[in-house]
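Researcher: For the record, we're logging two predictions in this thread. I'll number them. Prediction 1 follows.
Model: Prediction 1, sequence and structure:
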Amino acid sequence: MFFKSFLLSLANDAIPEALDVEQGVYRVSDRFIHPEELYTAGHLADIVFLHGVGGHPIDTWQASHSDESFWPKWLEDDLPGVRVLMIGYRSELAAFQKRGDMAISLRALNVADMLRAYGIGKRPYVFICHSMGGLIAKAIIRSTGTDSSEPFNTSFPRLPKPEGILFMGTPHRGSHLANVLSVLCGTYASSSSVGLRAADPYLFELQRGFMDAAARIHIKIYAEMKPVRTMLGLPGIMVVPLESSAIDGVETVPVDKDHVALPKCTKRTDQVYTGTVEFITHCLALPRIGLATNASAEPSA
């Protein structure tokens, strides 16, 4: 019992929003919606948010319990005509958390099916991803290529490629924290934590296939530069170091935040928010399709 409590405490220190989540697609109004409500929205583009392992479609992106800090809602206000969707899926760091778990490649199939049901791909769209959410998006994009090794790739229609993808603290080369958790958990290690281990062969293969399929897709990276403080009296945990979050040849912006704080914004002048608005505007050529932004981009470095 103590061992399980220790592992849960370590995991929750690094990812405290490890809450139970109802799988599905959410609008920024923080409620579940049905497909028939979406097709009449008249929007011109989609922004799709994907949280990471143990994350939550709302809390991952919200700096406080106040709805005013839920910055995806700001995007619909600042970019009229854009539909913002939050994807919720179950994941866990240890099997005894019993929230539900799938390997990254299988979760990508699961999420892709939800996206198709909600009309993603019928209009231009952009992925905004935190942590493992970026790996799921990469697997989805990889399946659009001609040299995909994702399982069952030919058994379902492929999503059109997004216009862009923004990664926040995504472990492209894995995380040493996942290695530690996998060793400590042993047989309790979840598929997610095993798949996030540093130097995992699947991650290297996923990166190769993603880059082959990502031609003409705009890519930007925000990298955490602070360790997550723990409540166990242990040294801070650098969940995804710069060498793992960066991709060669891709704009990588170091940010003075830790892994948990990276996807949260407290005000519209936050560098992550202004940079995200600028990125979306660039990807979707918003002035050209009649959309406007009232948020100005700050320097990204």
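Researcher: Logged. Prediction 2.
Model: Prediction 2, sequence and structure:
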Amino acid sequence: MTKGCKEFNTSFILQAPIHLDKNHPIAIEPSTLYNRTRGNTFTEQEKRKQATMATEHPSNKTDYFIDAESATETARLIDQDHFLTEAMGGLFSERSDIATMHFILDLGCGPGGWVRDVAFTYPQIEVTGIDISDAMMAYARSFAKVQGLNNAFFEVMDISKPLDFPDNSFDLVNARLIAFLTQEKWAQLLQECMRITRPGGVIRLTECEAITTSPATEMLFTKFTSAMRKVGQSFSPVRPLLGSTLVLSRFLRAAGYTNVQHVAHVVDFSVNTEAYNPFRHVTYALFAGMEPFLVGVGETTHEEMQQLLQQMQLEVLQDDFCALMYLLTAWGEKPQGT
């Protein structure tokens, strides 16, 4: 675990309000987030909200398949940031040149956990995070201010549109789990990254796939990937996969990046592993949050979703439950002289 990661105990943030000091997040009322007991993950109020949203078609304002302004989604991404960094062996496990960099950008940064970790670990680097969510950017700014991270900055920006940065602005552009883009928008984003990255700079992308022994969880993943295929955001023609890990290197080469490389990691989320509880909570929140999207594209009904979510909660508590997540990080360099 990196020095920065040790500062942030994300399970603590979700269990109780916390006093403000430079090493801990701003106080959040846990009832507005998800309940981290072995029982139901959402409050009754949140369940009613999900049921109402399930009758509505997903918003056309963004390609993201979950309400980005939801406090529950903020909580989910806080946990996800934490275990992803650990799973990947730290902030930059594949690189040894980070200390020589000056400006780093994180795309789709959510509540800003990765940005703050980098800013804490490398105080000489100016780190900027962008996300479409006003609520998450407000949270990230407050958290950074409390910690005294004067080198961490957050801006509301839609990564599916032109980025509001000058040419050659960043030494490294990072993105983790942004596989909610069509192939066309992936191409547009990578061209924008090429523009804002300095010559010799790096674009770094991380995507994942997961597999479990829970039939209900696998059915939910199947419905999710099928829905993503319907809206053009899956790259697997038949199998229940997002397929984004398959195309990262090709996308980078097509965008003009050179020296394209990749490294893989695997996370064991099975019972009695350190990552088991974070996976259980994050996965439930993920599927519950995407219910309006799945219902809107005709993949399921509210009643079926509730049945599958309840079944999943029971199955993941079984002593023989196993789960793995495969992560692939691919990166390339902007050619000198461009």
